[in-house]
Amino acid sequence: MTPMTNVTEQPARSTTNLSVAEAIKTRVSIRKYVQEPMNQDDLREILELTSLAPSAWNAQTWRFAVVQDADLKEKLKDAAYGQGQITSAPAVIVVYSDMEDTLATVEETAHPGMGEEGRVGQRKTFEGAFGQQDVAQRGQWGLTQANIAFGFLMLAARSKGYDTVPMLGFNPQAVKELLGLPEHVQFAGLLPIGKRAEEGYPQHRHNLDRVTKFY
Ligand SMILES: Cc1cc2nc3c(=O)[nH]c(=O)nc-3n(C[C@H](O)[C@H](O)[C@H](O)COP(=O)(O)O)c2cc1C
After folding, report:
1. With a 6 A CB cut-off, is 26 part of the ligand 1 pocket?
2. Which of 86, 135, 147, 168 has the fewest Cβ atoms within 10 angstroms?
């Protein structure tokens, strides 16, 4: 699956580099986007930054499917109950976890500095933790890790001057069929991404003391 589908002309690379605090403060959900393709190098950089997210035992269960093809976006919109941000955005990043792929290739995630011993240890760790669980159970654990990457992705995008809207309002079965994904994968969400063509709602959050206990 290539992220370069149907993109012939593209705007210049972003020169924006917001701090983490600036990215957090200026990220709001955007549902209308400027009608221009994503710069493909920016897209790759955002995904590379996202891939630096941490995960338990470095499992990196997240996988990305980048949809830029107009026809496929139309179909994705149908699977998302007609939500217009899917086709308004130049790209939609589908973030999902594939725990079965993670388990099958677990040696890849052992730190190279630990050599063969590390690879064997990594396999033992995962077999011990997940060997007795069924696919759905361990898939749920995989999703908790992919959700971390989903958060990183929104902030990485914002730091480079892009806007997004996280989405769980879609039919997962339909999205699996559209993208040819295996039955066992679990979705962190869809993420339309592009440059904002509206301001979105100002952030509205609980007061910190409403949601925090200090001990
Ligand atoms: C996991 C998740 C799923 C969401 N699903 C949708 C969705 O399907 N459609 C939509 O328009 N917004 C969706 N949202 C956006 C939320 O409505 C939005 O993040 C929330 O109201 C806070 O607003 P803000 O993102 O502008 O700060 C979702 C947000 C999250 C985190």
Report:
1. no
2. 168
